[in-house]
Amino acid sequence: MPVISNAGKPRISSRVNEVKWTDQQLQVIEAVKSCQSVFITGSAGTGKTKLVGEIIKVLRNIHGKQGVFVTASTGIAACALSGQTLHSFAGVGRAEADSGVLLSRVLSDKRALKRWMNAKALVIDEISMVDGELFDKLEYVARGVMGSKLDASRFELVWGGIQLVVSGDFFQLPPVAKLNSRKFAFEADCWDHSFQFQASLHSVFRQSDVEYVRILEGIRKGELNPEDEKLLEQRLLANEDELDHKVVRLFPRNEDVDRVNEKRLHDLGEETVVYEAFDTGTEPWKSQLNQGIAPTSLKLCEGARVMLTVNRDVKEKLVNGATGTITGFVNVGKDRKDQVKKICRCDGSLILPRVKFDSGPEIAIKPSKWEVSEGDEIKAKRLQLPLVLAWATSIHKSQGITLDKLYTDLSKAFGYGMSYVAFSRVRNLDGLYLSGFNPSSVKAHPKLVGSLNRSVLDGS
Ligand SMILES: Nc1ncnc2c1ncn2[C@@H]1O[C@H](COP(=O)(O)OP(=O)(O)OP(=O)(O)O)[C@@H](O)[C@H]1O
């Protein structure tokens, strides 16, 4: 299998403000165009998700919209690509039964069967969180459906001949499972046969500081040298009160995130405006909207710290993760489009929050749309403002975003990959503040270090 990689350390790309595909990214696009199944990996911020977005367009040109199914291991990642979770696509419930039972279940479930039979291409993002056993079971289901319903010879083809596009970094968050039974997707029996092309992207777009990229690579692999440990220890803050309000607190648990955000909002003592999401569609897809980043109910007030959850204007740095402060609310009059009316009504008038972003611009924020799609069908839609409160966020919600400044406690409670995800959200070391740091919290899963096939993990 061709592996494209620069067989070396991640390097920094200067193309931070415009999207110009790198040679590596272009090679992946070419492989997809020639109908190969590809696996895209690479460190955080190397443009995996951005590339997958482009690949989805390419796949739709090749196979038609109805033949391309876009999935991800988590609801947040799935919603970001307007797709669905891998579980909901597959129709295998919790997938605890063996492959044969799961295949019979799919064959007798009209809707699931239709999805599999229509699938010409399957995209799976955030593969690090997909369990290896599930990966094998789904491969069997794919062959079983294609072989029994379309063409018997397809039972012999890996994934029944479906073109796979899989993306993720195994050094980030691992599958959710009991520690000892956890199996990564790359440990699946079918993994090696599943791809004709593998790319490990090396140009880092998120960080612009060479030294920090080098330290991050060490953290990714759980290897920190004493000098780097010292550099990180210098980021320890003796007193949390020294922090300015622009620093986002990062917590492993959602309860802590909600507690901090609600308290800060309450402490401002300002009148709040509540934006209720406007959802359409049917179950079970509608419920999937709740797993995405856009909240059902968003309470805001003047002075509230907020984070943008979509890419609005890359040149102005108004990207997913950009933070700012609400400076007021803009009355947008009565004859606004219906979609604005649906969520922005306040005492009969329509109002939008105005945000002064830390990067400079001050703009009124209009609603965005999130969709759950299945092939070419949009099954559920949510309209909501693309904002969340930003005094605090969770590690899971921070996946895929770029922050200027963050504050976190790395002394405990962090599992494999969590420290790396946390550290890799900021653009440079100056943006990182720690309330605690224990070098032993920087750990890569033992299965990812040492004897494994390095090309699977980082192309080196
Ligand atoms: N070719 C490119 N040119 C310019 N910017 C790019 C390019 N590819 C990606 N980017 C930008 O780099 C940033 C990181 O990209 P992306 O989120 O896709 O990385 P990732 O590898 O998926 O990161 P993570 O593993 O942390 O989720 C984004 O702001 C994205 O728009």
Characterise this structure.
With 460 residues, the chain is α/β, with parallel strands linked by helices. It folds into three domains: 3-205, 3-Layer(aba) Sandwich (Rossmann fold), CATH 3.40.50.300; 210-242 and 395-449, no CATH class; 253-393, no CATH class. The protein has helices at 23-33, 48-63, 75-80, 86-90, 99-107, 110-118, 132-150, 191-194, 210-220, 226-233, 254-268, 285-288, 338-343, 395-398, 418-423, 454-457; strands spanning 3-4, 11-12, 38-42, 68-72, 84-85, 121-125, 163-167, 197-201, 203-204, 248-251, 273-276, 278-281, 297-300, 305-308, 323-331, 345-346, 349-357, 362-364, 368-374, 377-384, 387-389, 392-394, 406-410, 432-437. Strand 6, helix 7 (132-150) and strand 7 (163-167) form a beta-alpha-beta unit. Residues 2-7 have low confidence and may be disordered. Adenosine-5'-triphosphate is lined by residues 15, 19-22, 25, 42, 44-50, 169, 205-206, 319, 399-400, 402, 424.
